[in-house]
Amino acid sequence: MLVSPAEDGPALQRAHGGDVLPRLLLASDITALTRRIIDLDVKVGARRAARTATRILQEVERRPRPEGSEASAALAELFQVAAWTLFDAEHHAQARLLHRQALALSRRHADRAAVESVELLILSMMSMQEEHLGRPGQALRISSSVLARTDLPPRVRAIFHVREARAHARLRRRSPALRSLRQAEELFQDGPGAQDPQWAWWFDRTELLGHHGLALAALGDPEDAAAFLHEAALPAAGPAYRVLFATELTRVLARAGAWQETEACLSRLAGSVPSIGSARALASLSSALRHVERGRSVPRGLRDTARQVTQLLEHTTEPGQPARL
């Protein structure tokens, strides 16, 4: 049987000498391994899931697998999911390579509708990564090329309008960014449709609010950005990476010199720092702490809280992955 989501890396390593994986990897086996990465990422976040994803990729590379569109589609999904996890763990070179491999594999599938659905998911992630890495022009080229299509499901079109908005915002193009956000909001208000793919499950109200706030922050509008991020950061069930909205709220407030609100955010985050699974979230928290450290007229209580969080962050970050303080 395949390793369960509750097991860690050693279980996968034991597979080399046992019967955990069949000698020939079937599409169903690859799908089960993909599910394992998803479950682990949602539960504990990318920083921990990345190790398991890497081991699974190494295992899949060593095993023979059948040819055909079904196996290619399963591998494309595995590579896309692993790419997301490695992206959120800030392993960007590996993530970009996996995105390109996933895109190439998806195009071998005989079912054109399935191909297009997987391609859209991959392209949405590629656009987000390019913006995150400071390449908004490339992010915009990807999102705009997809939005030029006339056959997009409404929820997918909304996702790409968000990607477009984030790229415009990074380029300080206020009017186009706000227009894209309005279009995304209007499409979202229409509710889910029969054509929306299953992979779009994560694009909900919280996701839209969070990205709206991040776009406004990039446009230099901290007050409105904080309002959106505050709502997106409210406690709720969801993927582990969404702590990013809380850390980004803290960063926006610290950058604006809103010291009382910054201290409140840091105090709420302090207890959860060791369990934060998103490396992107830890990086934005580090940025917030730098703003406090360099700020003027920072209250003593906030400086004390910031030092405590900094110590937690230093103990949380793995060797070889500095917290960028």
Describe this structure in words.
The chain is mostly helical. The protein has three domains: 110 residues; 75 residues, Serine Threonine Protein Phosphatase 5, Tetratricopeptide repeat (Alpha Horseshoe), CATH 1.25.40; 107 residues. Helix 2 packs antiparallel against helix 3. The longest helix is centred in the middle third of the chain and has 21 residues.
Show the helix and strand layout.
Layout: H1 9-14, H2 27-44, H3 46-62, H4 69-88, H5 92-106, H6 112-132, H7 136-147, H8 154-170, H9 174-189, H10 205-218, H11 222-232, H12 243-255, H13 259-270, H14 279-294, H15 300-316
Helix pairs in contact: 2-3, 2-4, 3-4, 4-5, 4-6, 5-6, 6-7, 6-8, 7-8, 8-9, 8-10, 9-10, 10-11, 11-12, 12-13, 12-14, 13-15, 14-15
Average residue-wise pLDDT: 88
Number of helical segments?
A: 15
Secondary-structure element string: HHHHHHHHHHHHHHH
Structural category: mainly alpha
Assign a percent range to the helix content: 55-70%
Termini, distance in Å?
44 Å
Basic shape: globular
Main β-sheet: number of strands, strand sense, barrel status? none
Q: How many strands appear in the DSSP assignment? A: 0
Uncertain spans: 1-19, 319-325
Radius of gyration: 20 Å
Strand content: under 5%
Key traits:
single chain; 325 residues; mainly alpha; Serine Threonine Protein Phosphatase 5, Tetratricopeptide repeat; 3 domains; 15 helices; disordered N terminus; disordered C terminus
